[in-house]
Amino acid sequence: MTDVIEMIDPMTGEIIDEQQLAEQLLKQAKEQGVGLVGPDGVLNGLTKRVLETALEAEMTEHLGYEKHGNTTGENARNGIRSKTVLTEVGPVEIDVPRDREGSFEPKIVKKRQRRLTGVDEIVLSLTARGLTTCEVAAHFDDVYGASVSKDTISRITDKVIEEMTEWQNRPLDRVYPVVFIDALVVKVRDGQVRNKPFYIAVGVTVNGERDILGIWAGDGGEGAKFWLGVLTEIKNRGAEDVCIVVCDGLKGLPESINTAWPLATVQTCIIHLIRNTFRFASRHYWEEMGKDLRPVYTAPTEAAAAERFRDFDAKWGQQYPAISKLWQNAWSEFVPFLDWDVEIRRIICSTNAIESLNARYRRAARARGHFPNDAAALKCLYLVTRSLDPTGRGRARWATRWKPALNAFAIAFEGRIN
Question: 344 with 305: CB under 8 angstroms?
């Protein structure tokens, strides 16, 4: 049974539940010919009454007597002062009670507070969806009839920088069955606007959850030293063991992986390998080429895969020699994929969750055009991460049917998963 929120009707003194309250508000809006939200909306008036009632209750608790009651102490009520606060329903003008000594410190609407916390969350949510400060300001003006400066919006989003630092340094799980490392290209103004890579590491926990381990800015010339620093940071935060690391052609990364986690298997991303194959071929042949390539990466053994690839190369190699070279160069990091159980293959081959995450990152980055520096880009990417999980842990459900994969991992990596 659901709980019923009860309120007292100030006109009749009768108890009304939330359904009756909603009906009364709708009726009142129709009778007065006004909307529910906006500067003159019914919810605006209701918010004003609720905030003022709460402030009066705080003053009563502070002084120890009800309004219009007798006081035996030196301090007493001393009128009101009006101020406007920005709320989720728009700007609301409220009367804040004062006391003679000036010792009253309200908690609901603090001194010098000009907006409720819910407004900050709206700003962060809109920014995470790629809106610029100008667009967020225009949104508040259009929807709420409120004027919010660009500086205010920037200050609100800057508040998450400390939170982002804590998130980037939070403790991690002891073991991850799979870690994906992928690159995202963002435009940053560094003297001139140029494409700059930002690297995202995503782990799959033993519970089948997607865990965004962190985001790092690169400069395009990363090598083993850079990657060893990133992986050592992840390891120092508690990730003692990783079974499989899925990555794609990042220079110096495979060597660094085996230095940080000697038992880890480096696996090239199958989806990226297939997509890179198509880049060298005419779109007209993609469907046919995809059918010919499928027997290679679904083969039961390395020998069978090599035979299937010879068939593929005999048909397409002369026309597209770059494809043959691509697969030959990636073969040593491709073949570990063939050793795994089909359930493990499904997890490390399916990058739907990674791609959906990158799609959100790209959408937010494209909407901003370019960023003035790395810090601004990282803040935007973190806000997207934050929007996926309001707890700030950067986690979300990975996929269904995780238990079969967990059993396969437990057998393949006996003693390391449990």
Answer: no
pTM as predicted = 0.67
To the nearest 10°, the Cα dihedral for 125, 129, 133, 137? -60
Per-residue pLDDT band at 385 (split at 50, 70, 90): confident
Q: Which among 128, 125, 150 is positioned nearest to 137, based on CA atoms?
A: 150
> Residues with Cβ < 8 Å from 172, sequence gap 6 or more?
203, 211, 213, 234, 237, 238, 239
| Whole-number Å distance between alpha carbons of 187 and 226 | 21
Q: What are phi and psi of 64, to 5 degrees?
A: 90, 15
SS3 110: coil
Q: Which neighbouring-strand residues pair with 15?
A: 8
Could you tell me the residue ranges of all domains in the chain? 6-116, 117-158, 172-412
Q: Tell me the C-alpha distance between 334 and 297, whole Å.
A: 9
**CA 252 vs CA 181, 231, 235: distances in Å:** 13, 12, 17
- Backbone φ and ψ for 231, nearest 5 degrees, come out as -70, -35
Q: Say if CB 183 and CB 198 are below 8 A apart.
A: yes
Give the single-character DSSP code of 371.
B
Spatial distance between the Cα atoms of 244 and 349, rounded to a whole number of angstroms: 12
pLDDT of the residue at 64: 73
Both tokens of 80, joined, read 């009101």
Residue 369 DSSP code: -
Q: Give 35-79 pLDDT, tens digit per residue.
A: 555 555 555 565 666 666 666 777 777 777 777 666 666 777 777
> Rounded to whole angstroms, how far apart are CA atoms 262 and 109?
55
CB 214 within 8 A of CB 401: no
CA dist 117 to 6, 87, 124, 230, 380, Å?
Answer: 25, 8, 11, 35, 20
Structure token digits, residue 127? 């920014």
DSSP per-residue letters across 34-84: --SSSTTSHHHHHHHHHHHHHHHHHHHHHHTS-TT----SS--EEEEEEEE
